[in-house]
Amino acid sequence: MSIKLFTTAQGFPWIKSLKAPNDDEHSDRLNHRYSVGFLLICASIVTGAPIAFERITCWVPAQFVGAYSTYTKNYCWISNTYYIPSNATVPHSKYDREHAEIGYYQWAPFIFLSFALFFYLPRMLWRSMNTRSGIDLQYLVSKDDKNIIAQLIECYCQPNKQDVLFSRRFFRTIFCTSGKRFGNYLRSIYIMVKFLYLINSFIQLVAIHIVLGQPGWFYGIDVWYNVFVRNSVLTDSPFFPRVTLCDLRIREVGNLHRYTVQCVLPINMLNEKLFSLAWFWFIYVFISNLFSFLFTLYDTIMASSRINFIGNLYRTSVSSPFINETLLKKFTQDFLMQDGVLILKILYHNGPVFLATDVVHLLVKNYERKQQEEGVRKTTPQLGSSDV
């Protein structure tokens, strides 16, 4: 049975992506690989925590014995308990008690799983869309033969159609009105995925505050300040209270009795640490996504950035200090265009550096030869019917 479960788990997209070649940048993998892995571990820890200790324990009246005590614990677990500070009076108003309810601790595993799902969704979009472009980036990165890689890139870039107006290329890229023949299909999808990673990481931060009912934006800092500076590990926290109150009604012989019992939530000790770690991790991922998106947008808008990147790779592969800058600029803008440069960047970030430089050298060499052949054909006079 365990072998069957292990085999089935290996078929999950996230498990399979761990073994597949990388076809994106490190900031992207922070989202769909490391964040998903971290959140799955958190969900597993919270799910398995009841094996180590009780989820909830309630201090019940003396007449509650046997089934009464078990019923009280189960009822208070599935219904939302509420938190009132120990130095405050328990309110009599039902509204005030409901307003103080905390209802996230039962759903903690599902909260982590939903976070993990939304971190992985942009990755699914990227894989499904880039394979439709006519070139599989994972297959390309897995190859170590520069001739095969150069041939694949040439086949992809060859049918591209020039668009001399910068404004048209820019708006096609930004608003995804693109295609393989315009040379910006992959770039448009890549920017959209980067933007989704950025928005998702921000929404995850907002979601943590909404779920936990936090008024400010410094939840994680407040928790860790209380733990490490004030050393208040055992004191009750308004975010993750250990001691809560629970109202229950028991019908006995036609009479409805209302009880208020005090409960201890050991699971909140664990939830506090996991949600604090998740808050700090989301902050780090959000900042990484922000810089990555801005750099990608800059590289998309500024042709000089792409030309410099290709130029640096080409200079590394040649020993001559004299380089035809005009040819290199024309090669980058008219032949590679947006998609070709992006493919080479992905190859550069995920493969050996020398492989990317060799591929660029081979592509420039082939492009220069074809340009010379076209120049010869244009300068060679054609025989007309009158010359025969």
UniProtKB/TrEMBL annotation:
Q: Where in the cell is it found?
A: Cell membrane
Q: Which GO terms describe its biological process?
A: monoatomic ion transmembrane transport
Q: Does the keyword Transmembrane helix apply?
A: yes
Report the membrane topology from the UniProt record: Multi-pass membrane protein
Q: Name one Pfam family in it.
A: Innexin
Cellular compartments per GO CC: gap junction; plasma membrane
Superkingdom classification of source: Eukaryota
Which family, according to the similarity comment? Belongs to the pannexin family.
Identify this protein by name.
Innexin
Taxonomic lineage is: Eukaryota, Metazoa, Spiralia, Gnathifera, Rotifera
